[in-house]
Design brief:
about 70% helix; 4 strands; two-stranded parallel sheet; Four Helix Bundle (Hemerythrin (Met), subunit A); two-stranded antiparallel sheet; about 325 residues; mainly alpha
Length: about 325
């Protein structure tokens, strides 16, 4: 007989108690009792998808309309991200499927928010973009690896909640002309004040990774391979003439596939799975070809186009199979 599922999380967030007690609770009274936590998770993710559409297809640096849309989407997403947990607890439907949907979708949600911020603030140097995106992916992967290794999630004093609230406040402040002018003033070496947002993102990702590795006390081999492969991908994408959108997609797909494997290992009590072997083998071969000057522009295009298709298939397959394996925990309505 297997032990009943229990969500093990230590959240040290400074703002969480106040945010949930005085803000989320007010909205929770409006949530229908029949609405399942998983549906709230999916619904809130839809607002991040709106951000993705605006960022990818309606790119416009510093648009006040985009700031308003992003602020509304972030607010609603963050609210739903806490309402789903409250609904699961209230209805007694906490489950491994709910945890998988909540945290796995956040992997992509976080990457979309990062991309939307960099698009909104204007052209970011490609090298810096790749470093920040790499840190974003590694930070999410490290969080899930810690849960697998220590059997619990740990969020620090300044975590996701504080970060999203700060971004939300930034986008709202952009709607006020004098404040927007302040953000656009030169700070250092010709960079505007709003570069503190970009620097803050990077430091937040780096601090998360460092804290987790210190708590674990070692670097598991699968995670070490994931880290090496991710750095290799970032180098190749920066060295070759790939667009930032394509680079973003490849990095998030590769990390998404690995994170799905890690979560599957934890939720179904399996051994720590390694990243996709074909992706690992291919990136090392292509890296050698690049370093020896044997990689042509045509081969680069063929390789990354094929890799994107393969990783999309892997991510979809991994997501569908995990949801199918945990299907007994899906509810269309909450049990009475």
């Amino acid at each position: 007989m297997t032990d009943p599922y229990r969500y093990n999380c230590i959240d040290k967030s400074l703002l969480l108690p106040v945010y949930k007690k005085y803000y989320v609770s007010a909205y929770f009274r409006l949530v229908p009792q029949w609405l399942t936590a998983n549906m709230i998770t999916i619904f809130s993710t839809g607002f991040i998808m709106v951000m993705a559409v605006v960022a990818f297809f309606f790119e416009s640096k510093g648009s006040p309309w985009h700031a308003l849309i992003f602020a509304f989407c972030l607010h609603t997403y963050l609210l739903g991200d806490h309402l789903d947990g409250m609904q699961a607890k209230e209805s007694g439907t906490s489950s491994p499927l709910g945890e998988f949907l909540d945290h796995y979708l956040d992997v992509y949600n976080g990457a979309i928010v990062f991309y939307a911020v960099t698009v909104f603030l204007g052209p970011v140097p490609k090298g810096l973009f790749l470093v920040l995106m790499l840190l974003n992916c590694v930070a999410f992967a490290a969080t899930m690896v810690e849960e697998l290794e220590r059997k619990e999630l740990i969020f620090g004093y300044l975590g996701t909640l504080e970060g999203v609230l700060f971004l939300n406040a930034f986008f709202l402040s952009w709607l006020i002309p004098p404040v927007r002018a302040f953000w656009q003033r030169d700070l250092l070496w010709g960079h505007p004040v709003y570069w503190v947002i970009i620097i803050g993102l990077g430091l937040g990702y780096l601090g998360t990774i460092a804290d987790i590795l210190i708590r674990i006390g070692r670097v598991p081999k699968p995670f070490a391979l994931f880290l090496i492969c991710s750095i290799s991908f970032a180098y190749l994408l920066g060295h070759q003439s790939m667009t930032m959108a394509s680079a973003w997609l490849i990095l998030i797909l590769f990390s998404g596939d690995y994170i799905s494997r890690v979560m599957n290992s934890y939720l179904q009590s399996k051994q720590h799975q390694y990243p996709d072997i074909l992706s690992m083998a291919s990136v090392f071969l292509v890296l050698v070809a690049d370093l020896t000057g044997r990689l042509s522009a045509d081969l680069v295009l063929i390789y990354f186009s094929t890799l994107q298709i393969w990783l999309i298939f892997k991510v979809l397959w991994s997501f569908v199979t995990t949801v199918y394996q945990l299907r007994e925990h899906w509810y269309w309505t909450n049990p009475r």
